[in-house]
Design a protein that fits this description.
With about 270 residues, the chain is mostly helical. It is built from eight helices and no strands. It has two domains: about 15-180, no CATH class; about 185-270. Helix content is about 85%, strand content about 0%.
C-alpha cells in the first residue's frame, strides 16, 4: 500500500502525541516566535516595508496555526501549506537580508513537521528546511558568513524535532503502559472470578457425590432392615427364638445405617 505522506488517522503515535502537544507546544512556540516578530518589526527602518512584514507574518501564523488545529488534513494540503510558509520566510529574508534571524522560522516549521508528517516525509521536510536555511543565508550574506550563521539554526532544526518525537514517544509509551496495567488488572479480576467459580463447582460436585453415596448406603440399609422385619414376621409363630435373633440383627442394621447417615451429614457440613 502506497504511503500518502501524512500519518493515517488512528495510528498509534499520531493522535495521542498530537493531542498532548496540540496546545502546550504552540504556546511555547508562539512565545518564542513573538520575540522574533517584535525584534523584526522594531528594527525595520523603511516604514514603507512594514505593511509587507505584517502581511507576511500574519500569513505565516495563519497557516502555522491552521496546521496545529487541523493536523489530519489531506497530505497534499499539508505539503502545500508547508511550501507556502517556506516562501513566506524567504520573502521576509529578501525584504531585509540583514535580518538573518528570520531563518529561525524554519526551526518552527521543523518542529511542526516532526509532529504532522510520517517518518519519511517528516525527515524529507526537515532536510529541506535545513537546506533552505543554509542556502538562503549563504546567498544573502555570502558563503562563509552565511554558513557560519546557519550553524545554530541548523542545530535547532534537528534538535527540536528530535525532542518533539522523544516526548511523543514517551507519551505513547505511558499510555500503552496504563492500558497494559488496566488489562492486567481486568485479567486478574477475571481469574479470581474463575477461581471462585471453580471452587463453587468443586463444592457442588463434592456434595453431589456425598448425596449419591448417602442415597446408595441408606437404600441398602433400609432394604436390609426391611428383609429382617419380614423374616421376623414369618418366624414369629414357628420360631420365637429366631425372632429374637432377627430383632438383634435388625437393631444392628439400624445402628449401622444411623452411623452412616451421621457421617455423611458431617461431611456435608464441612
Amino acid at each position: 500500500m502506497r504511503s500518502t505522506g501524512a500519518e493515517p488517522a488512528g495510528a498509534a503515535p499520531g493522535p495521542v502525541g498530537l493531542r498532548a502537544w496540540i496546545w502546550v507546544v504552540p504556546a511555547a512556540v508562539y512565545l518564542a516566535s513573538f520575540g522574533l516578530v517584535a525584534r523584526l518589526v522594531v528594527m525595520v527602518d523603511d516604514r514603507g516595508r512594514l505593511p509587507w512584514y505584517v502581511a507576511l507574518l500574519a500569513l505565516f501564523y495563519l497557516l502555522f496555526t491552521a496546521l496545529w488545529l487541523r493536523p489530519r488534513s489531506h497530505p497534499l494540503l499539508l505539503h502545500l501549506t508547508f511550501g507556502v510558509q517556506c516562501v513566506v520566510i524567504l520573502a521576509l529574508l529578501a525584504l531585509e537580508p540583514e535580518f538573518d534571524y528570520v531563518t529561525s522560522f524554519f526551526v518552527l516549521l521543523s518542529y511542526q513537521a516532526a509532529l504532522v508528517f510520517s517518518t519519511r516525509t517528516r525527515w524529507a521536510w526537515i532536510g529541506t528546511l535545513m537546506l533552505l536555511t543554509a542556502a538562503s543565508l549563504m546567498v544573502t550574506l555570502g558563503a562563509l558568513h552565511g554558513l557560519g550563521l546557519a550553524l545554530t539554526p541548523l542545530a535547532f532544526t534537528v534538535a527540536l524535532p528530535a525532542l518533539a518525537l522523544a516526548s511523543r514517544d514517551l507519551e505513547v509509551a505511558r499510555t500503552e503502559s496504563q492500558k497494559m496495567v488496566a488489562e492486567l488488572e481486568a485479567t486478574h479480576r477475571q481469574l479470581e472470578e474463575y477461581a471462585a467459580e471453580a471452587s463453587f463447582l468443586g463444592a457442588v460436585e463434592e456434595r453431589n457425590r456425598l448425596a449419591r453415596e448417602l442415597h446408595d448406603s441408606v437404600s441398602q440399609a433400609m432394604f436390609g432392615i426391611l428383609l429382617a422385619v419380614r423374616s421376623a414376621q414369618l418366624m414369629s409363630r414357628s420360631d420365637p427364638e429366631g425372632v429374637r435373633v432377627q430383632l438383634e440383627q435388625l437393631q444392628g442394621l439400624t445402628q449401622d445405617a444411623l452411623a452412616r447417615m451421621r457421617g455423611f451429614i458431617a461431611d456435608l457440613r464441612t
